[in-house]
Specification:
The protein is mostly helical. It has one domain (3-50). The protein is built from 2 helices and no strands. The chain has helices at 3-24, 29-50. Helix 1 (3-24) runs antiparallel to helix 2. The longest helix is centred in the first third of the chain and has 22 residues, at 3-24.
């Protein structure tokens, strides 16, 4: 599995745990859904930025 997939699975497990905690604290279900959607978006943004392939350095040209 790619590092992107691993990162995203871990973040989804974290989101599920936070949603269960919010439910147990009697948070309104609408706000739990909003929080889950926002956190999934943040997780995707973080996963793509942290697992982005680095550009290889350019090959040395003549005169270098």
């Amino acid at each position: 599995m790619s590092s992107f997939g691993t990162y995203l699975i871990g973040f989804i497990i974290l989101i599920v745990g936070l949603a269960i905690a919010a439910y147990l604290l009697n948070a309104p279900p609408m706000w739990i859904a909003v929080g889950v959607i926002v956190l999934i978006g943040i997780g995707i943004l973080m996963a793509t930025s942290r697992t982005k392939m680095k550009d290889p350095p350019p090959p040395p040209g003549p005169g270098r």
